[in-house]
Design a protein that fits this description.
- The structure is a single chain.
- By secondary structure, the chain is α/β, with parallel strands linked by helices.
- Helices cover 26% and strands 25% of the residues.
- The protein has a 5-stranded parallel β-sheet, with helices on one face. Strands 10-17-11-12-13 form a 5-stranded parallel β-sheet, with helices on one face. A 5-stranded antiparallel β-sheet has the order 20-21-24-23-22, sandwiched between helices.
- It is globular and about 80 Å long.
């Protein structure tokens, strides 16, 4: 057993933990920063599906440690067994003891496995953010698969389906909702994603409830997916990609308050309720929606990293320049040239919450003139509150520029921008890099035209 001391101890080395460490080292350069994580090699979470297709190997999805080390932080491999809040100590599984001044829990999430028969069979798997586990999947299980069923039609299910079908695997997505991606997008975007997947050979089963996974002839390995009201689907492997839950075992043992949604309760600076010296960030921490303050279950790396920056700034004194104002869901992905992204609320979500909404749309090429090489059409829909004209969300279908356009919409939401702000926004334009008219400006103009048409209807033959 060894005994050591650090000023800042961060438990967990995912996006939230690493960003906390980098930010803490930058804002408190006189303090020692230690990131404690169980894995020697860490992967980039968002890149995991691409290991099995585009990247072609686990080693191509390595998360770098250089930024943390360059900022003055350290990484130690180990797993915490217990934490004494009063003594400010952490005991590791190997018996080592670490003294700390500030503690940050970044313990992540665990996969949700539905309570259906057969999930314990061989060939049934989920995705873990663990290099060795993923490498074994890539080298051992995936090469044996000829027919794969994916339970869950969210981002992970869709991306994994597109990547594994590139290996010649027959892929079936089984989704309980009427459409894939329905929790994140409005129906027209969902249908566009479904069409793109179908055209590339992925079989889609929506509105389907899985009743059981059944063993094949050997009695050990999965052989069928039983779907309510349908014939059993013959398979030789099943990926469960339904979602995740906060990993809070350590927080429970410490007696920290958990929210009703399951995450560690934190304030706007990521501090826990019981102790201002203990913080929580990332998937293990409670999320609140930016607009409604309801529990937000979106667990994405960008949100985790943002929380890490907030915690890292505020460990030794509150800095009003950066607090957690609530979670904005910002997603983007791509299937063979069709990129799709969303930020904030969809029309359906806004209407469910009771917001009277105003929306605008635009379709235009992403370069100018449209004859430029690699030009792709962009479809952009922006949603505003009908009374205040504040932006609530937006969706994009397009090409390579989709990701940054979605990020721009996300920034506008966080800045509480209104339609008049955006329609007059100055933007840069370059024929090979951007459209001549920014899609956000064009869609906002469409929304405002509808808005003012109702307020000031033109009378025929009488100019305004």
């Amino acid at each position: 057993m060894t005994e050591s001391t650090t000023d800042i101890l961060i438990v967990g080395g995912g996006p939230a933990g690493m960003m906390t460490g980098i930010t803490a080292a930058q804002f408190s350069p006189h303090k020692k920063v230690l990131v404690l994580r169980p894995e020697t090699d860490a992967v980039i979470p968002c890149g995991i599906p691409y290991i099995f297709g585009t990247l072609g190997g686990t080693e191509e999805d390595m998360a770098g440690r250089a930024p943390l080390l360059a900022a003055g932080g350290r990484i130690q491999i180990g797993k915490v067994a217990s934490i004494d809040r009063n003594a400010h100590t952490a005991t590791l599984e190997n018996g080592d003891l670490i003294h700390w001044e500030r503690l940050v829990l970044a313990t992540g999430a665990e996969n949700f496995i539905p309570p259906i028969p057969g999930t314990e069979l061989e060939g049934v798997f989920s995705i873990h953010k663990d290099y060795d586990y993923l490498d074994k999947l890539f080298s051992t299980l995936i090469p044996q698969i000829k027919k794969l069923a994916i339970i869950g039609g969210g981002f992970i299910g869709v991306e994994f389906a597109d990547e594994t079908r590139k290996r010649g695997i027959e892929v079936h997505i089984v989704e309980m909702l009427p459409h894939l991606m329905q929790a994140a997008f409005d129906l027209d975007a969902c249908k566009a994603v479904e069409k793109q997947l179908s055209e590339h050979g992925v079989h889609i089963h929506t509105g389907c409830k899985v009743e059981a996974l059944v063993a094949g002839a050997d009695g050990k390995r999965v052989g069928q997916v039983q779907i309510a009201g349908q014939e059993a689907l013959e398979v030789d492997a099943v990926l469960i990609a339904i979602g995740t839950r906060p990993q809070v075992d350590l927080a429970k043992a410490m007696g920290l308050t958990l929210s009703r949604s399951g995450g560690i309760w934190v304030d706007a600076f990521q501090r826990t309720r019981e102790d201002p010296h203990i913080f929580a960030v990332g998937d293990c921490a409670h999320k609140q929606d930016f607009f409604t303050r309801k529990a937000n279950h979106a667990m994405i790396a960008s949100q985790a990293a943002a929380e890490g920056r907030i915690a890292g700034m505020n460990l030794y004194g509150l800095r009003q320049l950066r607090t957690n104002a609530g979670s904005v869901s910002v997603y983007a992905s791509e299937i063979d040239g069709l990129a799709f992204g969303v930020a904030g609320l969809t029309e359906h979500q806004a209407e469910q919450e009771g917001f009277p909404i105003l929306s605008g749309e635009a379709r235009l090429p992403d370069h100018h003139p449209a004859s430029m090489p690699n030009t792709t059409e962009i479809f952009c829909r922006i949603i505003f509150a009908a009374d205040s004209l504040q932006i609530l969300g937006g969706q994009v279908l397009g090409g390579a520029t989709t990701g940054e356009l979605v990020n721009t919409i996300g920034l506008a939401i966080q800045m509480h921008a209104t339609a008049p702000d955006l329609v007059s926004m100055q933007f840069g334009s370059q024929p090979r890099l951007t459209p001549s008219l920014h899609p956000l400006v064009a869609a906002t103009g469409d929304a405002l035209q509808r808005h003012y048409a109702l307020l000031h209807p033109c009378v025929e033959d009488q100019p305004l």
